């Protein structure tokens, strides 16, 4: 009988010990905090929306347990490197690299801290990966803002079937802009257009290159391009004076200088990136196995003000961009 009592007592103690251990682990997990670094290339509507969506997704999931070190490079890729080096020195738990130059700087800055890109068009191009299969591997994953480029070409054709020449205006310093232009150009040439590249190196020569493009083209196409996005007023002033319509790669650019776009929601893209971050930080998912995610929906949109100024009628299935 005494042996039975002793056995029961020992079992009870072991059970209490186990419960105590589990409670301690749960308490430790609930007390865990995360610092997330954000490197955004430049301030403009699309990238701002992606950053906000990312932060909202993390805050919704982790509450006060997550804090952000948010930095903006003001359009300077060298500053991106400086920002990334600072985040690595601070030993943040995860880095959001918003735009291609930020991703490239982050990839060069650390192979240990998880990196999620967003508003990056093509990761294979950005990171110079041959035969890219959709998963970067290592410590990098993220989301892509690539819209169906053949459908953007089809949109231009739908709105301007009688146009003959298309000028492709983009920043040559942005690898993903070159990729978009090459892809759209092939699709447009298949539709019978004559296309010419108008590449500018930075904002300093944008006006002169845009003037040449507007003078020589019936329609201008601009891809998802961060330098363009930061200087839409320059392009709009030039193209409006020449009465040349612009088809844009995304909503923010279209709002500034375009007549129409096939675009994604950058807020939703950032939110999807934030949900990936939650799976990495909270659930322990292995970033090396996480494929790049893409926006699920695309919307035909138009700029009512510029369309009215240019006398362009838009089909009913286009959504007006709100000012």
TrEMBL record:
Q: Name one Pfam family in it.
A: ABC_sub_bind
Mitochondrion: is it a keyword of this entry? no
Leader sequence residues = 1-24
Keywords annotated in UniProt: Signal
Report if keyword Zinc is assigned.
no
Q: What is this protein called?
A: ABC transporter substrate-binding protein
| Lineage, opening ranks | Bacteria, Bacillati, Bacillota, Clostridia, Lachnospirales
């Amino acid at each position: 009988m005494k042996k039975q009592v002793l056995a029961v007592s020992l079992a009870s103690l072991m059970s209490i010990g186990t419960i105590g251990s589990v409670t301690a682990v749960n308490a430790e997990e609930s007390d865990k905090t995360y610092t997330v670094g954000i490197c955004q290339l430049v301030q403009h509507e699309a990238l701002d929306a992606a950053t906000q969506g990312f932060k909202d997704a993390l805050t919704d999931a982790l509450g006060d347990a997550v804090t952000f070190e948010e930095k903006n490079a003001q359009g300077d890729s060298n500053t991106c490197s400086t920002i990334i080096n600072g985040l690595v020195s601070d030993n943040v738990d995860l880095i959001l690299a918003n735009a291609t130059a930020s991703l490239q700087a982050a990839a060069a800055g650390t192979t240990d801290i998880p990196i999620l890109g967003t508003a990056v068009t093509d990761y294979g191009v950005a990171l110079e990966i041959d035969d890219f299969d959709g998963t970067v591997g290592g410590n990098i994953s993220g989301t892509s803002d690539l819209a169906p480029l053949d459908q953007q070409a089809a949109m231009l054709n739908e709105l301007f079937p009688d146009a003959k020449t298309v000028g492709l205006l983009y920043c040559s310093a942005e690898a993903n802009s070159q990729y978009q232009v090459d892809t759209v150009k092939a699709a447009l040439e298949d539709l019978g257009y004559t296309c010419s590249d108008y590449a500018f190196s930075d904002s300093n020569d944008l006006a002169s290159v845009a003037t040449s493009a507007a003078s020589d083209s019936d329609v201008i196409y601009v891809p998802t391009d961060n330098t363009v996005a930061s200087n839409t007023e320059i392009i709009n002033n030039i193209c409006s004076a020449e009465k040349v319509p612009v088809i844009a790669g995304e909503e923010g650019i279209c709002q500034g200088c375009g007549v129409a776009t096939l675009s994604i929601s950058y807020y939703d893209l950032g939110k999807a990136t934030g949900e990936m971050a939650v799976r990495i930080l909270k659930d322990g998912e292995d970033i090396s196995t996480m494929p790049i995610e893409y926006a699920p929906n695309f919307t035909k949109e138009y700029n009512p003000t510029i369309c009215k100024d240019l006398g362009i009628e838009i089909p009913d299935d286009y959504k007006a961009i709100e000012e």
